[in-house]
């Protein structure tokens, strides 16, 4: 049985004991809930992969309580990395840095780099401090599923597989941290996230963004071949390009007429019109901050309504739009442009 406890000084102390003893604790960060274990304990880290059903080839992020702790993990911090850490930590930026041998190879999937960040959440910081250890933590969901932004999402995915969930309420950013490779010149965003490209560029100048693996535009290939991640259970279609809203409306009409229960993830401005059609509409909110905060919860909610199909449009690439687009593209069965 997994304990689900409201985070306070007593339950954080209990969680820290579990981490020190080699157990697994899910905890809130400002982005999504993490599934934490002692990053320096090979056996404890192994339990993360088992609990999530995660392949060992997918390396983990190590969480610290402050930049001063970084010498426990990395060989060197470049001037650019130092500036970024000082500017954005604590916060949703993960830096890829050369690792020390003390970091188990399982954490880094045998790479000679380690992913590090300082989360901007009082519960996460208190837990790392109380444990006195760096905490390795991927998002606290079953592998391939939507990331959890509430303790209840974690419970749904991992009950019986982990020791404790600390409930610190819904997370504020809602999409994961930005993963930045600072060893390449210019630095390269491997995963867009809570710290936007514009924010990074205002501090260190131009950065590049790793291109996303393209999915076939036509037909439904075998699910095993998809770069499917962050995904709801229902089939999901993402509409992009200038005609996205129109095309979405046409698909809605067609699939509703065919008797399918259609769910839509919609910004507030378009939700009213879509609700009139009888579709199940989840309102993401008025702006990109709100859309990011609610995107995963929306996918989970539509799954619970038992919809056959989820429709969503692209929200552009400015600011958090890029991270939202990345997650929607991976969650979608198909992108229609
Ligand atoms: O916001 C977040 O980053 C959340 C919270 C819990 O901190 N964590 C998270 O972890 O999203 P996870 O495991 O779901 O994603 C880690 C990402 C993966 O895309 C992984 O490939 C990348 O970081 N990563 C980890 N170590 C790496 C390395 N050494 N080189 C390149 N990419 C790395
Ligand atoms: Mg994840």
What does this protein look like?
With 337 residues, the protein is an alpha/beta fold. It has two domains: 207 residues, DHBP synthase, CATH 3.90.870; 102 residues, Rossmann fold. The protein has eleven helices and 16 strands. The protein has an eleven-stranded mixed beta sheet, sandwiched between helices. Strands 14-13-15-12-16 form a five-stranded parallel beta sheet, with helices on both faces. Helix 1 crosses helix 5. The protein is globular and about 60 Å long. The chain starts with a strand and ends with a strand.
Q: Indicate the low-confidence ranges by residue numbers.
A: 214-226
Largest sheet: 11 strands, mixed
* Structural domain tally: 2
In DSSP terms (H or I, runs of 4 or more residues), the helix count works out at 11
The topology string of helices and strands comes to EHEEHEHEHEHEHEEEHEEHEHEHEHE
Outline type: globular
Q: Indicate the CATH architecture of the largest domain.
A: Alpha-Beta Complex
Bound molecules: threonylcarbamoyladenylate, magnesium ion
Q: Identify the strand order in the major beta sheet.
A: 1-8-2-3-7-4-6-5-9-10-11
Please, what is the CATH homologous superfamily of the largest domain? DHBP synthase
Coarse structural class: alpha/beta
- Quick check: average pLDDT? 94
Assess the beta-strand content as a share of residues.
15-25%
**Amino-to-carboxy terminus distance:** 45 Å
- Provide the gyration radius in Å: 20 Å
Q: Report the CATH topology name of the largest domain.
A: DHBP synthase
